[in-house]
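A further point concerns the way the authors explain their paired sequence and structure data. Showing the layout once, in full, would remove most of the difficulty. For illustration, here is how one protein appears when written out as sequence plus structure tokens:
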Amino acid sequence: VQLQASGGGLVQAGGSLRLSCAASGSIFGINSMAWYRQTPGKQRELVADSTGGGSTSYADSVKGRFTISRDNTKNTAYLQMNSLKPEDTAVYYCRAVLRVPYAREYWGQGTQVTVSS
């Protein structure tokens, strides 16, 4: 089982990006998927998460600008990022708790998001 994150890049302040996180392999279901981000010298922080029940939560710094969504038919989560700010610059990581068939945590490789002012 693997998680593959993609969609990062360089964008100007005010612009948008959409990150994708696809789970592949023998998966029986998804308990939750989430996005984290990390900048040099700082701890990884939770940006947004989506539980199996469909509820979502966001860091205060991204509320109203970022939206997490999931396509369970594709075992994929997305992070739509709008109105990007330079302080959103970070390496973004996806995390999933997958049923394989028991619940297990997986992390994807990071994808760099750089927002220029």
